[in-house]
């Protein structure tokens, strides 16, 4: 990845993007993906030939599907429901389901969204398991995993609002850094002086050797220096399970 703003606006045209053959008459065009800058969700379009269906499966995260062409049948945990254009489904994590083209003569398409870039698919019949983003991008299953820098920060009494404003101002310093994917600030319920800053990076080196050795890091520390009570405690984590 080159330096600069990682998350940049994109216009994605399905006709210009590669499709993945799902077998049994179904083809998928991934749209917003981890490789294209997604940090919180995935989406794409799956086309079904007349009479086509995909295998019964479950996901580890919630999924929503909109029928955008033709007539469909959705089977959610054994309950079959006919769907028309713009009918929309919401299926929570770990609920078996699949979609079928209800017509033997005309094509059908669905627009799908998964609630996490860590979304996976497990086929009910065979147990075959894969990461959604990996199966569409041809990468190893764990290659899209984000490294999370988790900083436990304690601020001085009465400086909470000042600290929060400083983090908001500093957000662009992170966003403009190589490998930066997400930034979230949480406030502790039990201790009003404690915060948790979580920054997603493509690699640990992007944080330690990239951001920390940059002028942006010095500016970040300058912005928050007057509000802190001691140095932040920083640990790096990678995801091993997204259960729902």
Explain this structure.
The protein has 244 residues and is an alpha+beta fold. Helices cover 16% and strands 36% of the residues. A 6-stranded antiparallel β-sheet has the order 1-2-3-10-5-8. Strand 1 and strand 2 form a beta hairpin. The longest helix has 16 residues. The radius of gyration is 22 Å and the shape is elongated. The two termini are 30 Å apart. The N terminus is likely disordered.
The total beta strand count reads 16
Radius of gyration: 22 Å
Number of H- or I-type helical stretches? 4
Overall geometry: elongated
Give the structural class: alpha+beta
Distance between the termini: 30 Å
Order of helices and strands: EEEEEEEEEEEEHEHEEHHE
Strand order of the largest sheet: 1-2-3-10-5-8
What amount of the residues lies in strands? 35-45%
The stretches of 5 or more residues where confidence is low (pLDDT under 50) are: 1-5, 138-143
Largest sheet: 6 strands, antiparallel
Q: What's the SSE blueprint?
A:
Layout: E1 20-23, E2 26-30, E3 42-48, E4 57-59, E5 63-69, E6 72-76, E7 79-83, E8 88-91, E9 97-101, E10 108-114, E11 120-123, E12 129-131, H1 132-137, E13 147-154, H2 160-175, E14 180-187, E15 194-201, H3 204-211, H4 215-224, E16 233-238
Antiparallel strand pairs: 1-2, 2-3, 3-10, 4-11, 5-8, 5-10, 6-7, 6-9, 11-12, 13-15, 13-16, 14-15
Helix pairs in contact: 2-4
């Amino acid at each position: 990845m080159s330096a600069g703003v990682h998350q940049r606006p994109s216009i994605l045209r399905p006709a210009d993007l590669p499709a993945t053959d799902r077998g049994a008459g179904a083809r998928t065009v991934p749209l917003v993906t981890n490789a294209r800058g997604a940090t919180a969700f995935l989406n794409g379009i799956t086309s079904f030939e007349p009479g086509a269906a995909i295998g019964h499966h479950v996901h580890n995260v919630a999924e929503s599907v909109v029928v955008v062409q033709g007539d469909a049948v959705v089977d959610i945990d054994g309950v079959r429901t006919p769907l028309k254009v713009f009918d929309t489904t919401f299926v929570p994590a770990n609920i078996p389901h699949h979609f079928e083209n209800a017509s033997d003569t005309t094509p059908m398409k669905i627009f799908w969204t998964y609630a996490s870039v860590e979304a996976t698919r497990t086929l009910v019949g065979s147990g075959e398991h894969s990461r959604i983003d990996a199966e569409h991008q041809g990468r190893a299953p764990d290659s899209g995993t984000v490294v999370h820098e988790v900083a436990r920060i304690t601020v001085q009494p009465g400086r909470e609002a000042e600290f929060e404003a400083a983090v908001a101002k500093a957000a662009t310093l992170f966003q403009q850094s190589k490998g930066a994917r997400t930034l979230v600030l949480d406030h502790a319920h039990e201790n009003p002086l404690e915060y948790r800053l979580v920054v997603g990076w493509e690699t640990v080196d992007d944080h330690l050797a990239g951001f920390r050795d940059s002028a942006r890091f010095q500016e970040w520390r300058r912005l928050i220096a007057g509000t802190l009570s001691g140095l932040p405690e920083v640990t790096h984590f990678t995801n091993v399970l997204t259960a729902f």
